[in-house]
Amino acid sequence: MKKVSIVGGGIIGLCSAYYLAKEGYQVVVFDKSDMTDGCSYGNAGMIVPSHIIPMAQPGMIAQGMKWMFDSQSPFYVKPRLSYDLIKWGLQFYKHATPQHVEKSMPALRDLALLSKELFQDLDRENHSFFYEEKGLLMLYKTDKVAEEIQHEGKEAQRLGLEVDFLSKEGVSKLETGTRTDVIGGVHYKSDAHLYPQKFMQFIKEELKRMNVAVHSNTLVKDFRMQNNTISGIITDKGEFATDEVVLASGSWSPEIAKKLDINISILPGKGYSFTLNNRTDKPSIPSILCEGKVAVTPMSTDIRFGGTMEITHTNDLKINQNRLQGIVNSINDFYPDLKIDRPEEKDIWFGFRPCTPSGLPIIARDKKISNLVLATGHAMMGLSLAPATGKIVTEIISNKATSVNTQMFQL
Ligand SMILES: Cc1cc2nc3c(=O)[nH]c(=O)nc-3n(C[C@H](O)[C@H](O)[C@H](O)COP(=O)(O)OP(=O)(O)OC[C@H]3O[C@@H](n4cnc5c(N)ncnc54)[C@H](O)[C@@H]3O)c2cc1C
Questions:
Q1: In a mutational test of the pocket of ligand 1, which residue from 252, 350, 374, 389 has the highest number of ligand atoms less than 8 Å from its CB?
Q2: What three-state secondary structure class fits 282?
Q3: Which residues of the chain fall short of a pLDDT of 70?
Q4: Which residues line ligand 1 (CB under 6 A)?
Q5: What 3-state class would DSSP assign to 408?
Q6: pLDDT tens, 186-212?
Q7: Which range of residues forms the domain containing residue 370?
Q8: Residue 397 sits in a domain of what CATH number?
Q9: What distance in Å separates the CA atoms of residue 196 and residue 40, rounded to the nearest whole number?
Q10: Are residues 258 and 270 in the same domain?
């Protein structure tokens, strides 16, 4: 059987490894980190068929400009003179049209629903990652945001998703874990959630069981080329021969792709989270506090809060306390009885979402290099879309028809 090398052991790389190994391929994963704390570990754990509208959408430019001048806002582009940032910004602007949104919605819906089915299958095998189907509650406090969120809910309904529109009282009836101070909410019944660290642990154990070689702390530096194919992966621990390659390196994909003369426009969207352990007084339904764009996820006995999107660079390792204060303020405004203090710096996690300017992931065979498949750019939906991506990567490598139409996911 062919040998497939995967560059990047985040959730996209590991789910690709899982479905490839199941299909009988000999799989090797390389990751430069120790694979314990990257973007795929501290995220909010939401599985979101509800998120059918890509980030590149009309209105986002004006809203983004307004937010850029607010130090606690949920979205921010760190201004800097960079060719990559200017190129990304221009492409984002080009994609922020109603036509792009209309074409993207069914493509994202199909990918997310396929992923949810695959999560259900995995959960049936093993419940160690706390998969639950309670839906997602979009909570709001202002008429303006209510209008936007209800409009999105109606679009989702039009595309066949099950959505409830709730009054203030309707929200209190559903969210019984703690009191909410909102004017209403939209409940997406299609959504689910899990505990990301536990899922990563589960998938690593599965890979071990299937004899997948996982090389952590191994930096991929370059590639050995033979005509138009990659014949070897050059790492800081030596060279490895290969038949097929999957590039699943998240926010680092552009720098690795450059070694192959491929241009991928992805910028990191830095986000933060913190987790409170063993809280009894906590929200029971995963929610997004819409005005602050804060994600709240109950996970087993814990609760995780996540938010902010700072378009930046992968060397930006500082914690921006103002953005964190924005998250804490939203929690206290929406859940008045919860009383959360700003966490200490050691308890704050951050990760880099790999954001494409189209707001869509790239899942495709490369046009120039015949044995290279790209699986990257999943932005705020990488966990949600990972099993479907892994399955499609496997189908592409096996030259089979893909389970969903991937036309919108080309480079
Ligand atoms: C605050 C926050 C909340 C989020 N909430 C959700 C959510 O609720 N639901 C959801 O679906 N998504 C969520 N996301 C997004 C999700 O976490 C990401 O989309 C996902 O983790 C991306 O996975 P990935 O495998 O593409 O990238 P990563 O997890 O970043 O993995 C890429 C890997 O490539 C490795 N690598 C890079 N360069 C090299 C190299 N040269 N050699 C070897 N290895 C290399 C890196 O070390 C890294 O481990 C959230 C993100 C954040 C920040």
A1: 252
A2: coil
A3: 62, 65, 68-69, 71
A4: 7-13, 30-33, 38-40, 43-46, 219-220, 248-252, 256, 271-273, 295, 306, 351, 353-354, 376, 378-384
A5: helix
A6: 999 999 999 999 999 999 999 999 999
A7: 3-40+198-264+359-409
A8: 3.50.50.60
A9: 7
A10: no
